[in-house]
Amino acid sequence: MKKNMGTVDKIIRSACAILVGVLYYTGLINGTLAIVLGAFAGIFILTSFTSFCPLYLPFGINTRKK
Q: Which keywords annotate this record (predicted)?
């Protein structure tokens, strides 16, 4: 896996995942919406830690500075 995510991209994804967690724990989201957003939050955290987004490959997107 070649890294294709820059720092700003990782920060935005992490912030979105944290926001979903806060919304869930405060009770503002629940049920199916919470499950779907929780899955996306997990994917965002995973891709932030690995600095690799598989969806960027087909489109040739690379936000990482060279």
A: Membrane, Transmembrane, Transmembrane helix
